[in-house]
Design brief:
The complex is a heterodimer of chains A (105) and B (380). Chain A is α+β, with helices and mostly antiparallel strands. Chain A contains two helices and seven strands. A five-stranded mixed sheet of chain A has the order 2-1-7-4-5, with helices on one face. A two-stranded antiparallel sheet of chain A has the order 3-6. Chain B has a four-stranded antiparallel sheet, with no helix packed on it. A four-stranded antiparallel sheet of chain B has the order 4-5-6-7, with no helix packed on it. In chain B, strands 8-9-10-11 form a four-stranded antiparallel sheet. The two termini of chain B are 33 Å apart. Chain B is mainly beta and 380 residues long. Classes of the chains: A alpha+beta (105), B mainly beta (380). At the A-B interface, α2 of A face β6 of B.
Chain lengths: 105, 380
Amino acid sequence: MASVSTEAAAVVRVRIPSPLRSYTGGADQVVVAIPVLAPEHPASLAAVLAAVEARCRGLRFRIVDEQGRVRPHIKLFVGGTLAADLAVPVPAGAEVMIVAALSGG
Amino acid sequence: MPRARTRPAAAPARPVTLYVATRKGLWTLASDPSRRGFKLAGPHFLGHIVHHAVLDPRDGRTLLAAARTGHLGPTVFRSTDRGRRWTEASQPPAFKSGSGRAVDHAFWLAPGHASQPGVWYAGTSPQGLFRSEDGGATWTGVDGFNEHPQRKAWCGGDQDGTPDGGKLHSILVDPRDAAHMYIGMSSGGVFESTDAGVSWRPLNRGLRADFLPDPAAEFGHDPHCVRFAGGNPDRLYQQNHCGIYRLDRPGETWIDIGGGMPKSVGAVGFPLVAHPREPDTLWVLPMDGTDVWPRVSPGGKPAAYRSLDGGRTWRRQNEGFPASQAWWTVKRQAMTTDRREPAGVYLGTTSGEVWGSRDEGRTWRCLARHLPHIYALDAA
């Protein structure tokens, strides 16, 4: 990826719910820069989570299973829209929100 | 041919620590040397579902806890100083990418053979077997089981099984041979490997499975808990969905030893514990398995039953327990013994009470109450 300049990086803010803040040092958000080839080819949600995982080791497995499926009752929003899967594009400047339901007694 | 036995020595009169794994975190109950006084400490991981916590008997300091949290995925926490500081496994148990399967939670933790420090096994829900060679930091699947072409036939689909999901439990490593292992599965049955998990075969002859079209099926059985007899790893005991059983190797056929239980109590339950040294001595804690399976103490009168003769006869032990209106449920890994002389026996209820006996079940007293739903007890 050495050929990707910083100008071609999409900056994405990821909001972290309280159950996952043990992985972020308590931070409620993580900002990551994702290399992109061009604005018309935005990063995927999978790439954003990979960038978060690189900084917050172990976080991804708590919300995405070993088959790449978002775990039941975990919701991922991109720019306020519920993401159907991890292939959803994340435009530069978009905000990703991780929602972890806390149902049950 | 049975291999040589070595009789385990009683532990010296030092304090006992119970690791109390609950639906809301992990607590410890530490005794004084007499085991009369117990002090509760914790919680660790408040709000996390802790299915099992086990101290490594090989080094006396490595403590693993199998956990998940609400809807977050499963993981394993590890400490190398008996729980003062914790780190998370960098690679928790997970099935192979592309297998289509996902671990819901690690359910059972078992230290490996004494000759293999750092080796641990984990059983998961749905049924999977995992191994760590670095004290629980990283886990890889035991392919001989997880990828076995018959695995799905043995266990059923991942939606089958107990109310909390099918699970692999009761991982037994022969103390004389690290390559010789048994596992129990609800559902699936008991399986044996003699090559460190490369190959497995069912070992269920003699067990009833009255919920299957063929009650004498080769697999698909529902062992709730399987233990080695104390001091004799050629003998296994099993609390099954359909009774209590004993297997004496090299025999291949389980013997029904639940027939001596009172008819009004029955032979259904979840935990079973063996005496740490006496191969003929074991305890069960009966649960009501009639009609819709209430899974509570029969009649609301809790009692352990002890056998001193390998299950031929049983004696009720309830001195100190509530005499009525006590509707306990005790899960399969929530009963244990210590290694002292006489052996201590302990149990934890889903209503958050820990009870203990320091005289091999003759008398019981409550050691802690008001805890969350207890999943597991382990004594060190």
